[in-house]
Amino acid sequence: MTSAIESDDGASLALDDMFAEPPRPPSPEPTIATYARERDASSDYWKKINIRLVGSHPLWGHYLWNASRAFASYLDDHPELYRDRNVLELGAGGALPGIVTAKNGAACVVLTDYPDQALVDNITHNVHFNIDEQNRRRVHVKGYIWGHPVEPLLEVLPERDEERSFDLIIMSDLVFNHSQHDAMLKTCDAALSRRRPATVLCFFTHHRPHLTERDMEFFVKARDRGWHCEEILTRKYPPMFPEDPGAEEVRATVHGWSLVRSNQ
């Protein structure tokens, strides 16, 4: 029942009448970005992945970033990193890299992003659209805030031994979140296996060249926490935003880094 009161002259004043808002512009429609497999896929069952992106989002989930494309190709070329193993993607956005691992034989893949319904629903859509029903059972979509307890992420993993943990954690274009470096590393440390060889892969672009040093503080903090950090890839793309300030060469380069525990 609609709440309403009457004015002195008997006219009804519903809440909508008292607190009327101007009409808002409609939210942009979702878009589709296609990743075409780069290695020879003539004998394999997939050749492309269509990623739906939310129409607009303050957390930048409405772009398929160059780092995500480079990450997808790197993972496609290196299935030994995750085949028959557990994979966690943080800040997944459209979840292209994680979907590649699911299609290429990962044992269990957990795709996460900030627990915003639009982001989570969009990842779920991409999983259903790109992964067949049989393999879909090995993929889980979760809302997750970096630095929070990882038990909700671990509970979906198969019990292979006494330790439920991830063998590979993938992070695409996240290091620009400077205030969240400690939280990301806390999650990686808590979720990554300590009993099996395990790796964190971090791909990114310096979208703001004047803040490159702050981006790289992520790896300074990682080393301080006992991680061995090594750059494993650089790759050039057209810059995401050609008119942005700063050296185009910097904004056009994707960097890929590997992090493993120093005592591994």
TrEMBL record:
GO terms for cellular component: cytoplasm. It is found in: Cytoplasm. InterPro entries: EFM7, Methyltransf_16, SAM-dependent_MTases_sf. PROSITE patterns: SAM_MT_NNT1 (PS51560). Its EC number is 2.1.1.-. One of its GO terms (molecular function) is protein-lysine N-methyltransferase activity. It comes from the Eukaryota. S-adenosyl-L-methionine binds at W65, G91, A92, G93, D113, W146, S172. The keyword Cell division does not apply. It holds the Pfam family Methyltransf_16. Keywords: Cytoplasm, Methyltransferase, S-adenosyl-L-methionine, Transferase. Gene3D superfamilies: Vaccinia Virus protein VP39. GO terms for biological process: methylation. Residues 1-31 are annotated as: Disordered. HAMAP family: Methyltr_EFM7. S-adenosyl-L-methionine-dependent protein methyltransferase that trimethylates the N-terminal glycine 'Gly-2' of elongation factor 1-alpha, before also catalyzing the mono- and dimethylation of 'Lys-3'. Belongs to the class I-like SAM-binding methyltransferase superfamily. EFM7 family. This is Protein N-terminal and lysine N-methyltransferase EFM7. It comes from Lentinus brumalis.
